[in-house]
């Protein structure tokens, strides 16, 4: 959140087209932070195509430095009491982008389902009053992200890697404008050996593995732990924090990825057979015969101490053309403003200036190797968890989130750093701390109870849950 004088944002939902619901008339819940307002049910149409006439689609909320506005499209459940409802889709708005210029918007918003997939359009009018907030980038909507945990796969991979057991994580990012930027360019240059992956019965096996790794099933989770979580991302620090700046259990890691029109799918890979099998490109692509791009990436540290996302086209399955790498760079820079990205082609020598980067051990057969690749980096020092700069280093591989009515939201990087410091100091005492220094505090004191995970505004009495998430 951003410290500012109070203002307001008004929302007028006008119509929905192609919404992911078959029957009935949905309504919308508009939220910013812990503030919510409901529209009435759609007044016309039914199911996927509906309209709100007059004041039925209107809602207004006070703005108090919030960076995100959420429009949740919901529907009363026919199986439960009339007071209960289910979410059928969401739109996440960058308040800073909305407030830029005249502070108004009239047009379409993409609707994203619980699976972080675009499905349907919402026609809206948005207006800011007395809203002033720094912004970067041009995308009005934030990137929907979803993480999945598979403890069964993680246990198997941990045994072979001789590491502490953890869930095997897969990630899905609903990147925007992939199709517009790539146009007709795709990659599917597989040979006869890999062609078998896209024909039954192997195709069905690959699709089954994809379903297991990108699953909401609680059967694959640890008791008491969710198998998947939704997040929203809007800038470089959000993307980097999602991955713990590429560091897990004290080592820099390598990830395999694919990019499709509906987003980017990826996971950590390894020199070990089990994890390498789980992170195959065809698995991430759900056996799609063509992708926009595929390869590996890692988060390195430049000579200046800044994080750099280094991506390549290292995929023996799809063999992407190196000419498509700049297109992917354009997509990522658009979705995550400020992200420093370097693209490497597996058919070209490694640029000399990148050999000064601190990065993961990718030397085959060498002790500590996390991936058998071709890139050479300076080995990470023993204190690498102190990170790329003072702010990132003190955060390590964790970040902080607070709970809104509709899901978990990330604190800013500065607020996460402050909470981390307060938590360390509070451990030796009551487990609580008070501060006026949160970016959204506006001089008000917040009491943080780290034991029970509660953030309390002592002036208003409002309390929200908070938690720390490790990478």
Describe what you observe in this structure:
The chain has 471 residues and is α+β, with helices and mostly antiparallel strands. The relative contact order is 0.11. It starts with 6 loop residues before the first strand and ends with a strand. The chain has helices spanning 95-99, 151-161, 178-182, 192-195, 202-213, 236-242, 273-278, 281-284, 325-335, 390-395, 413-426; strands at residues 7-17, 27-32, 35-38, 44-46, 49-51, 58-63, 68-76, 85-94, 104-112, 118-129, 143-150, 168-173, 228-233, 247-248, 251-252, 254-260, 263-268, 293-301, 307-312, 341-344, 398-404, 407-410, 432-435, 446-449, 454-457, 463-470.
Count the helices. How many?
Answer: 11
Mind summarizing the main beta sheet?
8 strands, mixed
Low-confidence sequence ranges:
382-396
| Radius of gyration, whole Å | 23 Å
Task: List the defining traits of the structure above.
8-stranded mixed sheet; 471 residues; globular; 18% helix; 26 strands
What is the secondary structure topology, with strand pairs?
Layout: E1 7-17, E2 27-32, E3 35-38, E4 44-46, E5 49-51, E6 58-63, E7 68-76, E8 85-94, H1 95-99, E9 104-112, E10 118-129, E11 143-150, H2 151-161, E12 168-173, H3 178-182, H4 192-195, H5 202-213, E13 228-233, H6 236-242, E14 247-248, E15 251-252, E16 254-260, E17 263-268, H7 273-278, H8 281-284, E18 293-301, E19 307-312, H9 325-335, E20 341-344, H10 390-395, E21 398-404, E22 407-410, H11 413-426, E23 432-435, E24 446-449, E25 454-457, E26 463-470
Parallel strand pairs: 19-20
Antiparallel strand pairs: 1-5, 1-6, 1-10, 2-3, 2-7, 4-5, 7-8, 9-10, 11-12, 11-13, 12-17, 14-15, 16-17, 16-18, 18-19, 21-22, 21-26, 23-24, 24-25, 25-26
